[in-house]
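User: I would dearly like some help making sense of a protein record. I have put the entry right below:
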Amino acid sequence: MYAYAVLSHTSAAEYDDLPLVRRPDERHLTVPRACRPSVGPDVHIWWADLKPSEVRRMADPPPGSTAFVTAPTRTVLDCARYLPFREALVVADAAVRRGLTTRSALRRRASRMRGPGSPAARQVAEHVDRRSESPLESMQRGLHILFGFGDLVPQVLIEAAGVRLRADFADVRRKIVVETEGATHRTPTGLAADVRRYTALAVDGWLVVRFTWAQVVFDPAYVVSVLRAAYAARPRS
């Protein structure tokens, strides 16, 4: 059992510079089950008897703060226990993509978890994918998982009308491409590249649907309705 207060959950994710859809408005600490610390209103306490392998010392602890933080695998699974699925997937995908943990480690640890949030943690561990290159793509992929669009594969290389491109998501059998549009498409060069790639896809018979951050994050019902319409228009061959 680890005897000290340990920075954990989304606060530990923030320490490791993992992306969060919503920044925590409280500092999250995990303490041993037997402890009953006195804390301020901006601190959220979690109780768990952490193993030494689940804790590491901070490289630069703030003055007056704990000097310890949960290990990345523990951090990801802690976040998966209580965050909404898509937000937890953002943390997990980024941690695996950066090499802070692995899918196999997450699945192994999640399989042994018990108590509140354990099924949610196992769901995140099962679906984590390092191919998601941004929080936006992870949030979009979460919708595919939750609403049955699993044939939309991330980061698909496509040759269309003489143009070689990588789609954010593609269902090759139905010839559907899904693109999530961040802030990288706002320059004249970026716009020209986008026009060229989408024209090539259209000429080659692909159905392309595009979603913004606001739509994916704040209006998932709209995104799902568009995907359902696209699937209805393109039954699997």
Remarks:
- The chain has a mean pLDDT of 93.
- The first strand starts at residue 6 and ends at 7.
